[in-house]
Amino acid sequence: MARQFGLLFVGTFFICQFVLMMQFLWRYVDELIGKGLSVDILAQFFWYMGIMLVPQALPLAILLSSLITFGNLGESSELTAIKAAGISLLQASRSLIVIVLAISFCSFYFQNVIGPDANKSFSQLLLSMKQKSPELEIPEGVFYDGIPGSNVYVQRKDVGTGMLYGVMIYRMNSGYEDAAIILADSGRLQSTEEKKHLLLTLYSGEWFENMQSQDMAGSASVPYRRETFFTKRMVLDFDGDFNMADVAGIAGDARSKSLGRIYHDIDSIAEFNDSVGRAYYMENKRMQAYGMALDKADSLRARREAEAGKADIDSVFGKMTGDQKLEVVKSALSTVRMRAADIDMKGGYTNRLNRNYRNHRIEAIGKITMSLSCIIFFFIGAPLGAIIRKGGLGVPVIISVLVFIIYFIFENSGMKMARDEVWTVWFGKWISTIVLAPLAVFFTYKANKDSTVFNIDMYINFVRTALGLRNKRNIYKKEVIIEDPDYARDAGRLIHISDEIEGYSNTHNLLKAPNPIRVFFRDGDDRRIRDINEELEEVIEDLSNTRDRIILNELNNYPLIATHAHTRPFRRKAFNIITGLVLPLGVFFYLRMWRFRLRLLGDLRVIRRTNEAVVKRIEEAFSEKEG
Length: 627
Fold this sequence. Notes:
The protein is an alpha+beta fold.
């Protein structure tokens, strides 16, 4: 068993690794195409990508290989032989449990030691690839700052022709105060042959540029230059050769750290975040205590008088001239905008700090949950394979994909919720384990107890019972009859059953709606119907030994009676009380029970008619025999 599982695990691991790499590759396909990357750079890209995806491929490979292993054993009846020898499923899979535990520890070691370095190298390589050909990296609708000294905005671009449309460029070679603004209808950005510069060709545009303001400090206004052009070419300094990017900014990513490094840095990050929060709090407190100073002395004096209770700010404002009011409103509006911008800037900065802290906690928990998923997936796959008993790559692949999709949805949703501070970090990262661990326990218990949890007939019968559906009798003529029926006694018993049914119908009004209080909150059972049904079944069982085809056909007309469903939803009183308290559920079962009462009324009428037909046929048979 261990040998078969090992061989399947190796094969399925490479299959899962390939599928995950192809899915991951589509995210970065734009970084690879058309950039002239050498073979060794591409080999490094795929190598680091494969190493990063190993922890994700291990659980899926364990799930698929365990499903196939136990499915093959069940399909070939080897599991039946093992259980017949008195060996339980858990005992038979002890060697596999040891192997899976070893794989789980290897997964943790991989994530904690090898994974961070691979992630750091991959991020550095990816950043370097993005910087190699910036003309392919310029996005649509946002400013791109990948070109030194410039911010480029492109409204639309044509990947096939390389044309850029709706171009806006901010050049800041001399600082923000003397930025040049270039607007063009279209343009084209290309690398020079030596890969050291970028050639920017613009069509139908304008160039706005401030003159050097620092040289005109005494001037009241700053002159600017405006140029209109039909075609303009610019050469931008840019090293387009492939150079590895600086790793300093990448090293701070939580994915590039081991578990020990993460917990070491979390304290420093939390302390720094708290210091920033305290600094912002004290700054806002000081600004709130002292207020904002006004430019005008009259306005400042008016405020002091208002604060001292000597004047009303509204009355002072009303006495001002129109120009003074406009100036005060502009000053107040400028102050509000400045404060709003300051708050937005501080809020964005604190959100980045908080996200960095949460990312470290998410990554720390993720290393543990990803390792535990190897164990959980084994205890899902092995029992399911033993229950379904289908080997090969058909049903196991379908089940593996469904289980992995459920895991993937909960894992990624939880991570995003935790990262966006919608859920707590521990809940967001543990939710996939919380959902799948009970399933693993349930399937393992059912498989160990030989439960038919996936018996389709069992679920069909449950649905038919819940909806009140039933089968018809199928009584056929027996080939060998040992003892003939006692026709005289059976006829008398059928007459007695008809009398009992008539008396029951007169006593119980089945057309009347039942009392809900009596149905859900009181004890009671219809023993009379149960006795009638038992006696009827005994007669049918005896008459099924007849050779008379007419009687056999009439026996198939007898309905199968539900002796309890017309009185209570459940046999246990506690279940009835709970159902009655839950209003929507109680209404469903109340209407269902009323339907059973009406059906019982029709069944009793059919039984009486069938009894008369059977008794009549017995009498005719006796008359023919005597004649």
